[in-house]
Amino acid sequence: MPLAWLEAAGAWVLPAFLTVILGAALFRRVPAYSAFIEGAKEGFETFLTILPHLVGMLAALAVFQSSGALKALTSFLAPYFRPLGFPPELLPLALLRPFSGAASMAVVTHLMGRYGPDSEIGRLAAIMQGSTDTTFYVLTVYFGSVGIVRERYAVKVGLIGDAAGILAALLVGRWFFSG
Amino acid sequence: MIHTVWIGLFLVGILYAALTGNIAHVSTALFEGAQEGLNVAFSLLGILTLWMGILNVARKAGLLDALARLLRPLIRLLFPDVPRGHAAEGYLLANIAANLLGMGNAATPFGIKAMQELDKLNPEKGRATRPMITLLALNTASVSLFPTTVIGIRAAAGAAQPADILPAVVLASFLGSTVAVLVDRYYQWREGP
Known about the structure:
The structure holds 2 protein chains of 2 kinds.
Chain A: H1 4-27, H2 32-66, H3 69-81, H4 91-96, H5 101-115, H6 120-131, H7 135-144, H8 154-177
Helix pairs in contact in A: 2-5, 5-6, 6-8
Chain B: H1 2-19, H2 24-60, H3 63-70, H4 72-78, H5 87-100, H6 104-120, H7 130-140, H8 148-156, H9 166-191
Helix pairs in contact in B: 2-8, 3-5, 5-6, 6-7, 7-9
């Protein structure tokens, strides 16, 4: 693996992050514990927000998958993606990512359960999920908030950005973890 | 669009199962999918709550503001159409900073505030302006230094070092965002204001 020190650095990121934050809170005399509790409640709200998405999407995906339809779609598309070196296992993730963060997160979780979080597929899925965002969600929420009805070239920019992010994740992930 | 996709997954799945003699699998899949959804959400609950709490401490300690100050030159570069010192600037900075820290839930409200401020500069309401689309491009490409959720999923799945994908995510999201911004600049040039 190239840049082995970067992977080693990965183990230090969380502890370092935590130390800087808590150190700054101590220095600035922030009532850290109550600030933590206040923010942590948001975590529970997020849980409640994503639960319906996860149940709804995973049920739909489970039906689509168990029927064999996903396999059929994937093997239909695979020949077009293989020349790019794109693993067919990751196709459902790439297809869902722009539409639903929760659904693509569910796919990532499913892939980790099936192939293991430290497998090549598991890692690539995590990197794809982490380095892209749900274009249609952002578009709806952000433009919806100011009543934009003529979005002009925004969808094209978003989708090309998604495709670029997924390809970048594939290339970078391979470079880091498959030597 | 998401509605079509969701309905499509169910209907195509049911139809395909019916045609291939797999219809018995559909009801099992429904229950298993719902249960899996609950399990996934529960496995995230701990790490999600922990990090949202810690990130709020970071915000109160002024680390978010410090990062925003650090990023000001970047804002001038990304949003040249926004007048210097306009209220939109602060929210744009907060949005980018929150995204960098992986505070997805905090980034969204900041992004909405930024949109509302940008709309005050919009001469033609209802039509997206250039900085609005740039803000969207940045958020869809997800500039991210700290993918909390994905690291949480890896931890829940029993990864040896859940955060070891971090450098790869940072590099990949940087590349993706760069392409998104370049594509945005191309359309800015082609379509005008």
